[in-house]
Amino acid sequence: MKMQDGLSEFIERQLRNRCGMSGADYQVLAHLSEAPEGRLRSFELGQLLRWEKSRLSQHLGRMQNRGLVSRERCLADQRGAVVAITPRGSDLIKVAAPQHVADVRDVLIDHLTATEMAMLVTIGDKVAERLATLEHKH
Amino acid sequence: MKMQDGLSEFIERQLRNRCGMSGADYQVLAHLSEAPEGRLRSFELGQLLRWEKSRLSQHLGRMQNRGLVSRERCLADQRGAVVAITPRGSDLIKVAAPQHVADVRDVLIDHLTATEMAMLVTIGDKVAERLATLEHKH
DNA sequence: CCCATTTGGTTAATGTGTGAACCAGAAGCT
DNA sequence: AGCTTCTGGTTCACACATTAACCAAATGGG
To answer: What Pfam families would the database entry show (chains A, B) (predicted)?
Structure first.
């Protein structure tokens, strides 16, 4: 628990202080920048992030106000929305990503042996699998 | 990351649905119930939880409104506050604790081998230590 | 085709976390 | 004593997450 809280608090703080963005912002931009043309249907993004749809809607609204993403109506589905990364958002994630990766190395990966790292991955997979079956059981 | 998010989301949801309390509530009550006479100075509680003082103040306000804790002025230090667990809070944590422990077993401990569990503890300690030194360096 | 249901998305209410400003009482220094 | 600095707490403004309610466009039977 201490590791969990400490890790996310540290990562969150680094992103905030150095890039003026939250972990949530980072994930949104990361997914968008990896998508073809930097654009995704809103609900696709929601599935990738596993977020409540209201959360996504509100968060995208704030990011749009800051000029990090833009929203357009979808042509194929009249009720749908397409969200696209802006040049400003693209620049931001390009700066943030390497620092973020370095931080994760610095606080986690660099201090574990190969065995520990491998074990951590298998543990993570096991837990994720267990959580998935619980979730599937409704 | 998936393990981290999944675990805390699951635990949080179980507490909320079954006991009507958040993980934050649980931690506050847990610390108070372990303290002598179920009472602690506000700042001591803050140090145990590693919370911002404004967070603690606001959260205690809400818990007081729900009758889970009470606050009194401190005799020794005129500006200080003492926070105490109420009978209602005490009952709640007594019901919640075993369920909480069972949930943690169910989703984490029971599915790991002894080796994995031991390794996870080692990893947690290493990371916590690393975080502590970073924090200490200001 | 018509009507019920589902799906994509927004909005409002409430609970929760963070940083800054603020205040009163304590401690320390001269 | 008198002055500064530190400490314990609250409050405000804002960012953020969840739930429920809502709406319009799609879908799927009859």
So the answer is: MarR_2
Q: What's the CATH number for A2-96?
A: 1.10.10.10
Question: What distance in Å separates the CA atoms of residue B89 and residue B97, rounded to the nearest whole number?
Answer: 12
Sheet holding A81-85, edge to edge: A39-41, A81-85, A69-73
Three-state SS string over B58-79 comes to HHHHHHHHCCCEEEEECCCCCC
Average pLDDT over residues A114-133: 93
Alpha-carbon distance of A43 to A46, in angstroms, equals: 5
Considering only residues 83-112 of protein chain B, which place a Cβ less than 7 A from any atom of strand D?
Answer: none
Sequence-ordered list of residues with C-beta below 8 angstroms from that of A46, at least 6 positions apart, any chain: A53, A56
Whether chain A has a CB inside 8 Å of the CB on B107: the answer is yes
For A10, which residue in chain B has the nearest alpha carbon? Answer: B131
Q: Residue B41 pairs with which residues in a beta bridge?
A: B82
How confident is the model at residue B138, as a pLDDT?
58
Residue A22 CA to residue A31 CA, distance in Å, equals: 15
Cα-based distances in Å from A63 to A84, A86, A108:
11, 10, 29
How far A78 CA lies from chain B's nearest CA (Å)?
33
CB B72 within 8 A of CB B82: yes
CATH architecture assignment, domain B19-96: Orthogonal Bundle (1.10)
Instruction: Note the pLDDT tens digit of each residue in A66-98.
Output: 999 999 999 999 999 999 999 999 999 999 999
Q: For the stretch B31-46, what's the b/e string if a residue is b when 16 or more beta carbons lie within 10 angstroms of its beta carbon?
A: bbeebeebbbbbeebb
How far is A123 from B119, CA to CA, in rounded Å?
Answer: 10
